[in-house]
Specification:
Structural class: mainly beta
Radius of gyration: 17 Å
Strand content: 35-45%
Helix content: under 10%
CATH topology of one domain: Immunoglobulin-like
CATH architecture of one domain: Sandwich
Number of strands: 14
């Protein structure tokens, strides 16, 4: 599987970064997310905008362990446009597939999350082959192989139905389970799994198995 050209993609991602930083600067940055085993610090340097709102390219799933099949789709592309699909963080990423849009400018491709992907927040990227990247997906949360995840963040008051938490990169999560009553602005560490179903209206829902509130 080819590695992304780090110089080329670093420049391209730098062009996209202001779009995320402009929206994220209005929110406080929280502690970095961690899986059941410590996540590499590079995963903690993402600054994303309005992460609870999906943006193209669209994903069929928002989280899962390595090997999870994810359909990446987008419309409005150039007819028969050849593209690179990348996956990873803004610091480290790789080309996972070279694809081509159809005659209507639509793209739909199903790819497995790479086996070596480490737990934490990742993104799918679309780039013109030998050209510039132009689209970054909403966050995808990679879990451990057993589906477990550890996240650190800060409780917010953004959820009407569910408790909400923002973690690294301004990513919004909703929390369900035996939570107690953590106060807004409390810093917490949660262990859990991605909920199979959820009535929460915003963010990716985590079924919490353990929560610790920082003193």
């Amino acid at each position: 599987m080819p590695k992304l050209n780090k110089v080329r993609w670093s420049v391209q991602i730098a062009l996209l970064a202001p779009l995320f930083l402009a929206a994220a600067c209005t929110r406080r940055q929280n502690d970095r997310a961690e899986p059941a085993e410590k996540v590499d610090a590079s995963q903690a340097q993402v600054s994303a905008s309005a992460t609870e709102q999906e943006r193209p390219p669209f994903l069929s799933a928002r989280g899962g362990p390595p090997g999870t099949p994810v359909t990446v789709s987008m419309s409005g592309l150039v007819m028969n446009q050849r593209l690179d699909v990348g996956f990873g963080s803004f610091v480290e990423n790789e080309i996972v597939q070279q694809v081509q849009a159809d005659q209507d400018g639509d793209l739909s491709v199903t790819l497995p999350i790479p086996a070596r992907a480490r737990p934490g927040v990742h993104y799918f990227f679309l780039a013109e082959q030998a050209g510039s990247s132009f689209a970054v997906s909403s966050p995808f949360l990679v879990t451990a192989s057993d589906g477990s995840i550890r996240l650190r963040g800060q409780i917010t008051n953004e959820g009407a139905e569910c408790t909400t938490m923002r973690s690294v990169g301004d990513v919004l999560y909703t929390l369900v389970g035996e939570l107690g009553s953590p106060a807004p602005d409390a810093r917490v560490t949660v262990d859990g799994t991605i909920a199979e179903t959820s009535t929460c209206q915003r963010g990716l829902t985590i079924a919490v198995t353990k929560i610790q509130i920082a003193p």
